[in-house]
Each structure stands twice: as structure tokens, then as C-alpha cells.
Write a structure and sequence with these properties.
This protein is α/β, with parallel strands linked by helices. It has 2 domains: about 5-15 and about 285-380, Aspartate Aminotransferase, domain 1 (Alpha-Beta Complex), CATH 3.90.1150; about 15-280, 3-Layer(aba) Sandwich (Aspartate Aminotransferase, domain 2), CATH 3.40.640.10. About 35% of the residues lie in helices and about 15% in strands. The strands form 4 sheets. It has a 7-stranded mixed beta sheet with strand order 2-8-7-6-5-3-4, with helices on both faces.
Length: about 375
């Protein structure tokens, strides 16, 4: 296993020692549930969770830690947002509303709204794209909800989120903007106040924290009256019951209102260390440029991404991408093949799948040179 060259950072990042140490120390010496105990040990855990929440708020430029909700990942966050903003009981139904998505979207960003359209009849429209497959703010249509993929997990180009949101608000000042930042957060600094987005999601494991943890930013958490999930920790008081009448529920203040059940405490404990690490050790994209320059000379490779992309995506011209992936794997090369859970951009490009190489802070020029040699050996 030590001979494997891991070039699949866009799927999930390897974990820095600092993250592993933080979680192991917590599990060995300080473990307790959060928000459930009154002893000193439980109190320390609550303080650590609060500290992690503030760390995330500072990391993405939020004005308050109360805008940060912990989820299980980007997929969980995007699905929850669709439920939060479609709340007929509170008079916020998306029925007959217009939802703007794009062909850059990951399945988890777009499918919740596509399915919502099927069930309640909201209208799905596409954000325009330019000739380079970037989202275009020119002639952007009016929408009630705008889902923005800040960076495609196939093309790897940072989108101008601030300009897109500004253009959408010119058409409709009340548009609800939802940003999928799962790939963007690894490579670029996020400033949710500058962007003026209403919601934003990313997964902790993309930046070197553990799996099972995500972040959902809500610009105005008190605007959304009813939570989308129910359970322990988010209820302040219940009186009566539906069976006997006089039924009343008082929710906890935000963000607890949106965090039903036990939080992924161990993962949260490791998150601050991951943030510290990624802020100091962004992936070296010179490695991607080297790969582009070298493999662009191979006539049997169709390159999908640009030279300055954050990843290198290509198609072998004379073999199936899955066959290529199996052969590369037997030679110790760990990369991603398939449609990357991004069917729409592959359909737009006329492709059934592709091969993606993405680097992390741990990768070296030696790794990339070896990878190029393996790829050239497979594709002759």
C-alpha cells in the first residue's frame, strides 16, 4: 500500500497527522457527547465544539458562528437546504417557483431540486455558460432560487460566485442563492459576506478532516422558522400533544435548531487542525501544469481541462475509462474514473466518463512524473 500514488484528492483528502492526533487524543482522553452533559468533561467538549464552529465561521468569512450548522457532508447539506426553503407550512413553498441550476452541478447539488420539481411543480432552468463552460452572469435569467457550483469536480475552474449572485439579484432581489463549495474550498479562500450567498455547503473530508462531517452556512438562520430534521438537542420545550390538543413546540435557538441528534463530535474535534493545515498547505497546482504540458503531446489522450485548472481530466481515445482505471490501479496509481457524479457536464461534452487526477499537499513532482510514465505506458 505504501507504493500507491494517491492522486484522488478531489474525492477525499488524506488526513494530516495533526488531524489524526487531535481525534486520537480526544478519543483516548477526553471523549464525551456534546450538548448532553453537565459534568466538567462534557463542558470541555461543548467548548471544543463551539471553538470549532467559530473556526469555521472565520475560515469562510461568516459574521457569526451561529450561521454555521454541522451536517454529515455537502450532500446532506444540499438536500436539507431544499427542504428548508420549501416549507409550505410557513408559507415558503417553492411550488410554481423557478430554480436555476447548471450543467456544472454535482448530483448532490442539482438532484434535490430536480426531484422537488417533479413533486411540487417548480420550474427548472439552466444558468448560461460561455464557450469555456464557465457560468456566465451575462443575460442571466430571473430565478427564485439559484444553485451555484463554485468549482466543477470535472473541470476544476473557480467560478465568479460574487458576480453571479450580483447579477441574479439584479433580476430578482429576493432570489435565494445556494453555493456548493465542496471543491472550491480546497483551492480558494471563501468569503460568504463578499459573495452575499444565502446558503453554502462543503464537506470536511475534502480539506483533510474526517468523513461524516460537513458545514452548512446559513446567512439568516432565524429567517427559516421550521427545522427540517427532528430529534434530541433541538427542542427547548414541548407542551401537550397532537393527540390531546394544545400542542406546542419551542425550538432551541440557532444553530442547535438545525442540529437534531448527536453531532459527529470526533470529526468536529479534528476540523480546526484540518483548517489550519489547508490554509498553510494548498495543493501545488504546478504539478497539474506539468502533467498537462507532458500529456498534451500524446495524440491518444483527449484532455478535458485547461492548463491552469485545479485538476487534470482526460479521456483515453482508444480504451474505456474503466479499463484504464483498472490498469492504472494495478500499477499503484490511485485516481478517479467514471462520470464523477456529474452526469450533466459529461453529457454536454458528449462523454460517458472521464479520468481525473487531482493532487493534495502531500503530492510531489516525483509522484506526478511516475504517474505520467504509467499513463503513457497504458495509452500507447
Amino acid at each position: 500500500m505504501n507504493n500507491i500514488i494517491y492522486l484522488d484528492a478531489a474525492a477525499s483528502s488524506l488526513k494530516p497527522v495533526s488531524v489524526i492526533d487531535a481525534e486520537m487524543n480526544f478519543l483516548r482522553n477526553s471523549y464525551s457527547n456534546a450538548g448532553r452533559g453537565v459534568c466538567a468533561r462534557a463542558g470541555k467538549v461543548d467548548e471544543a465544539v463551539d471553538s470549532a464552529r467559530k473556526k469555521v465561521a472565520d475560515f469562510i468569512g461568516a459574521s457569526s458562528p451561529k450561521q454555521i450548522v454541522f451536517t454529515s457532508g455537502t450532500t446532506d447539506g444540499m438536500n436539507r437546504i431544499a427542504k428548508i426553503i420549501d416549507d409550505p407550512v410557513c408559507g415558503k413553498s417553492l411550488k410554481s417557483k423557478t430554480i436555476m441550476v447548471s450543467d456544472l452541478d454535482h448530483h448532490s447539488a442539482r438532484l434535490p431540486f430536480e426531484v422537488l420539481s417533479d413533486s411540487i411543480g417548480c420550474k427548472i432552468i439552466l444558468c448560461p455558460m460561455d464557450s469555456s463552460y464557465n457560468l456566465s452572469s451575462s443575460d442571466i435569467p430571473r430565478a427564485d432560487v439559484f444553485v451555484i457550483t463554485a468549482m466543477s469536480n470535472v473541470l476544476g475552474v473557480a467560478q465568479d460566485v460574487a458576480s453571479l449572485i450580483s447579477a441574479a439579484r439584479e433580476k430578482n432581489p429576493d432570489v435565494i442563492t445556494v453555493v456548493d463549495a465542496a471543491q472550491y474550498v480546497v483551492h480558494e479562500k471563501i468569503d460568504v459576506q463578499k459573495w452575499d450567498c444565502d446558503f453554502l455547503c462543503f464537506s470536511a473530508h475534502k480539506i483533510g478532516a474526517d468523513t461524516g462531517l460537513g458545514v452548512m452556512y446559513i446567512k439568516e438562520p432565524n429567517r427559516w422558522i421550521a427545522p427540517d430534521k427532528f430529534g434530541g438537542g433541538m427542542v427547548s420545550r414541548i407542551t401537550g400533544s397532537a393527540a390531546i390538543g394544545n400542542y406546542s413546540i419551542q425550538w432551541e435557538p440557532v444553530p442547535a435548531k438545525f442540529e437534531a441528534g448527536t453531532l459527529p463530535v470526533t470529526q468536529i474535534i479534528g476540523l480546526p487542525a484540518a483548517i489550519d493545515y489547508i490554509e498553510k498547505h494548498r495543493p501545488n497546482l504546478e504539478l497539474i501544469k506539468y502533467l498537462y504540458d507532458r500529456l498534451s503531446k500524446n495524440e491518444n489522450i483527449q484532455i478535458i481541462t485547461e492548463r491552469d485548472s485545479s485538476m487534470f481530466t482526460f479521456v483515453p481515445k482508444n480504451m474505456h475509462v474503466l479499463d484504464f482505471g483498472v490498469m492504472a490501479g494495478t500499477m499503484g496509481l490511485c485516481l478517479r474514473v467514471g462520470n464523477m457524479c456529474a452526469s450533466w457536464i459529461h453529457n454536454l461534452l458528449g462523454l460517458k466518463g472521464s479520468v481525473r487526477i487531482s493532487v493534495g499537499p502531500w503530492n510531489s513532482m516525483t509522484d506526478i512524473q511516475k504517474a505520467a510514465y504509467i499513463i503513457e505506458g497504458i495509452i500507447k
